[in-house]
Amino acid sequence: MKEAICVKGLTYSYPDGTPALGDINITINEGEKIVIIGPNGAGKTTFFLHLNGTLKSQDNRILIKGKDINGMSNSERIRKVGIVFQDPDDQLFMPTIFDDVAFGPINMGMPEEEVKERVKKALSKVGLEGFEERVPHNLSYGQKKRAALAAVLSMEPEILILDEPTANLDPKSRADFIKVINNLNKEGITTMIAMHDVNALPDLADRVYVLNKGIIAEGSPMEIFSDWDLLKDNNLEAPDIFKFFKVLGCFGYNCEDLPLSLDEAVEVLARTIEKENGHVHLHIHEHTHAEVKDVMHSYNHHTTWHE
């Protein structure tokens, strides 16, 4: 597979000398879905700002589609890498949605008709058809998130970077936004996402990197979330569904697979119930079970599931 991003030895300190990133080495292939997780202050946003050339460090080499980012013009970087920030208000500053989404193509020197076509296409991709004349500050937060994404998509980047895309969204808006991101990836856009929302992560990741100043670990979502010491040491948690099925295992129910998503959970639970002759009983006692204490700290009730 062709490389979309190759980072070699990225090291960066803030202006006051505080270390932010240390010797980061990452290779991401075209079309991959990558999620980066880590505690607050781990350097995720700082890392992303290096990937579009906003921040620069001489102690590294960053290749975008095989070309050194330091040798690219601003317009070339914009065409290669687009960043959607966590707060959409940081990217929506024009009188109308059309003006916001058209801002990038206009500044890239595109003719008027192409600008209009790109705006229409970008808004369609995020489900905001007909929003051209809407005022940004009158939109819901979820609509603002999608409008900010459209403003980046209008420049047709090959790599899309998103910082906390599901933060502060209600369940429906969250599901809609995840669907939009995955549809973009299916169209061939490489996606790289920083997030704390581990329950949404399995739907958005082929591979996961744990970042805490430097790269601590890399693997599939299952590999990362199965490493309890890694999660504990970096103030991270596994998805709720994964933790629940870990508890089932601790109480003697041998689930063949540990699910990470709701769809997987339904399948695994159905197989487990069938194997247990139609019912599952959990007896949760007053005392703490040593083998479960890292999953849930105390149990003081009795729970029973019946098919």
UniProtKB/TrEMBL annotation:
Domain annotation ABC transporter: ranges: 5-238
Keywords: ATP-binding, Cell membrane, Membrane, Nucleotide-binding, Translocase, Transport
Cellular component, GO, one term: ATP-binding cassette (ABC) transporter complex
A GO MF term: ATP hydrolysis activity
Pfam families the record matches: ABC_tran
GO BP annotations listed: cobalt ion transport
Membrane topology: Peripheral membrane protein
Origin: domain of life: Archaea
Cellular localisation: Cell membrane
Free-text function comment from the UniProt entry: Probably part of an ABC transporter complex. Responsible for energy coupling to the transport system.
Family: Belongs to the ABC transporter superfamily.
NCBIfam families (alphabetical): cbiO
Protein's UniProt name: ABC transporter ATP-binding protein
Species this protein is from: Methanococcoides vulcani
Highest classification ranks of the organism: Archaea, Methanobacteriati, Methanobacteriota, Stenosarchaea group, Methanomicrobia
